[in-house]
Design goal:
Distance between the termini: 55 Å
Number of helices: 3
Oligomer: single chain
Largest sheet: 2 strands, antiparallel
Strand order of the largest sheet: 1-2
Shape: rod-shaped
Length: 94
């Protein structure tokens, strides 16, 4: 999947767990299975729908991962800041 970077350039939107994205796309596509087995939906149509489901799940996974990483980075920076302040206080007390 392609997305826009900070400076507007095209970048690849990756996910750390592509197997979860694939599992989500399969889960989204499972309700089509009875129609496919009965012949109501042709193989090319089911493949197109699965490809769309995979693309949407990949994009959603990339967005969720980016939001999660943003909050994790903020929490990590806050923890580091607190540790540095504590070390400074201990150093000043000596």
């Amino acid at each position: 999947m392609l997305g826009r970077g900070v400076r507007g350039e095209l970048v690849l939107m990756g996910v750390r767990r592509p197997e979860l994205v694939l599992a989500a796309a399969i889960a989204v596509s499972l309700p089509m299975l009875p129609s496919f087995v009965s012949g109501a939906i042709s193989p090319p149509a089911i493949l197109l729908r699965f490809a769309i489901a995979l693309a949407l799940c990949w994009a959603l996974g990339a967005v969720i991962e980016r939001v999660y990483d943003s909050y994790a980075r903020q929490a990590r920076n806050t923890a580091i800041r607190k540790q540095l302040e504590e070390a400074r206080r201990r150093h000043e007390d000596e």
